[in-house]
Specification:
The chain is an all-alpha fold. Helix content is 79%, strand content 0%.
Length: 214
């Protein structure tokens, strides 16, 4: 007598579980691809088990309650993971911009000379600019917010070199004022851009410090 009402339920449950699992797999695309590749299959299997348990204990209402609980948590976690990924990418890109700017600055200073010609002692001021960035990064322990401040200070030091060169007429006649302003403005823009990216990385960093630390 008990078997008859229960007979058709497993097939209905199986269809409901299969449909829920397929929908859940689609929703998993909200997560970053790296996380899906590593944990997606396990998460889908776990959700399938939860669906089976919900149907057995509460029927359709139990499955609905599971979805009501799962959807907000899924989207919140997916958004958090994507924010962490964006922060990590912003940190790496910021570091790349800063290192590229430093490399070009050293190459120009030792090569053709940003101020005057090759060998002009005024170019040694740019090593002071790089020292500001290096010391600032060490003090900040390569954390995003500290790195942002260090790069803003580096940009300020870069601009100060240009001001000194213009006030004292350094590099003349080989480096006219417009050229000094353009070259130094280029590096100031790179350092400020790097600082803004570090600031963005720090803003997206999780409270637990799970964001990139350098």
């Amino acid at each position: 007598m008990r078997a008859s009402p229960r007979g058709p339920r497993p097939r209905g449950h199986q269809r409901a579980v299969g449909t829920s699992e397929r929908a859940y797999r689609v929703l998993l695309r909200a997560y970053p691809r790296e996380l899906r590749d590593e944990y997606g299959e396990e998460m889908a299997r776990c959700f399938r088990d939860l669906c089976c348990e919900a149907l057995e204990n509460g029927g359709g209402l139990g499955l609905t309650a599971l979805w009501v609980h799962t959807l907000p948590e899924l989207f919140y976690t997916a958004l958090k993971e994507r924010s962490t990924m964006l922060a990590r990418n912003a940190y790496q890109f910021a570091a790349g911009v800063a290192l590229t700017a430093a490399f070009i600055l050293v190459w120009l200073s030792l090569g053709v000379g940003v101020i005057g010609t090759d060998g002009d002692p005024a170019n040694m001021m740019y090593f002071g600019v790089l020292a500001v960035g290096i010391i600032g990064a060490i003090i900040a322990r390569f954390r995003p917010h500290g790195m942002a401040r260090a790069l803003f200070a580096t940009a300020l030091a870069q601009a100060l070199v240009a001001v000194i060169a213009l006030i004292f007429g350094l590099g003349l006649p080989w480096s006219p004022p417009a050229e000094i302003l353009a070259l130094n403005g280029f590096f100031v823009a790179l350092f400020v851009g790097s600082a803004m990216l570090f600031r963005h990385a720090g803003r997206e960093e999780t409270p637990a410090g799970a964001g990139p630390q350098g």
